[in-house]
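Notes from hallway chat w/ T.B., transcribed later so I don't forget. T.B. wanted the structure written out for a chain they're using in a teaching module, and asked if we could keep both sequence and structure tokens in one place. Agreed to drop them here.
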Amino acid sequence: MTENTASDQINAVAAAMALLASNPDLPAPALSIENLFYSPEGRFLGWGLHLALHHGLHQFELWRQALDINPADVTDREPEGGVYWLRAYGTFGGVPVRLIGCPA
């Protein structure tokens, strides 16, 4: 297995800056750079952006539209603990993006 280096994250960091700069009026997400996997296939996507919105599903919808993610590609889940949330995958600037949102 090859060890990751900081340079592997450069494209994701640049995409994060561009995404926030191009959408300054949208609700602030909890944003992280992560090595993303796509479930249920478990397919490796590479270094990308994880955007989490925890103050209402309307925030998720605003970001879904900004990222041009098809509504049909949104999935819902209710994990242990009974918290309902939405999840979708897309790309921005060629970088994978995972978007999640849950009610306030």
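Follow-up for T.B.: The two ends are 41 Å apart (CA to CA). Might be a good example for the class.
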